[in-house]
User: Fold this.
Amino acid sequence: MGKYYADLTTGPAQGKKTAWCTSVGPAELLRALGFNVYFPENHGAMLGATRMAADLIPLANARGFSPDICSYLTSDIGSYLKGESPFQKMKLPGPPRADVLVFNTNQCRDVKDWFQFYAREWKVPCVGIHTPRSLGELDDSIIEDVARQIQALVPQLEPIAGQKLDPAKLRAVMEWSRQCTDLWKAVLETAAQRPTPITFFDGTIQMGPAVVLRGTPEAVDYYCTLLAELEQGVANGTAAVPEERFRIYWEGMPIWGKLRDLSTQFASLRTAVVASTYCNSWIFDDLDPADPYRSMARAYCRLFICRSEDRKEQYLEQMVAKFKVDGILYHDAKTCPNNSNNRYQMPQRLEQKLSRPYLVINGDLNDLRLYSEEQARTNIEAFIEQLAER
Ligand code: SF4
Assistant:
């Protein structure tokens, strides 16, 4: 990961062009075109985890970005305006400037608005894919439309990259991406074991290479090592949470600035947060090197975040069964309605269907002014007591 960030900043001096990319694609295409691929959402998460966000968000607000919109966006733009970034903690100057910004609206509209700010600022192109949302059945017409949009990016990106897309390179990148995603899935599925050797909080850190390095052999090597370690842990009965008593599913965004506090609290309650929609969002079962455009389209449309309420519900039902979950925690992230699934009665419907209690925590991914630590702590304690009574 350190090398990835260092290469990002040295790449331009070596003649590499930089493409900013949304976290869920189309990274494979950009990597195959030889770009330095940079993921601003990853920078957003770093701003949250280092607790720099709350000081930076007001700068973006002052430029007209509402405090109610994505706090990755506002903290990242605030970071740019102030010239302060977690990159500097790594002795690197800061995020690389984009030669092109490439978005996919499969997750939200905010990413496009976010990228367009920089496109205006630096007078560089911003191109992307407009994916339909609330998808039920993924029928061929949707997949064809998205696949054509991905393919249409190629002639726009080639002159910026300064090279033609080599189909063999695209296939190789897709193959690495596929292997990375399969391994990442296997890593997360070790948590189906009781006791689990890994929790959601570990996952939020371990997912780094799946986000920023998928499509490279380094990510594949990393997850081979991690998986072997976890499988050994399962064989030895190693518990991520000693004397594991309860198992929780985390639905929604992480609260980046509170990972440590929350993981410590859950561990003290002998409760393992075993699975999450968030960490699973980087599993792309559909990627197929033999059919790159259609398979990318299918992979990036199958994401939980752009599916219909019914599909989301079915997915959560399967996850609860697979990971033997006792209860579901919904994080209602104030500035990300797209990743907050408690707002349209889903917790109540699933509780009735699955007989599993739920808890809603109000907070935010980055803006800790929207999170009450005391209230969350008390509510989590009461929730675990409720599980114990059952
Ligand atoms: S999905 Fe949510 S957190 Fe991610 S970029 Fe969109 S609004 Fe921000």
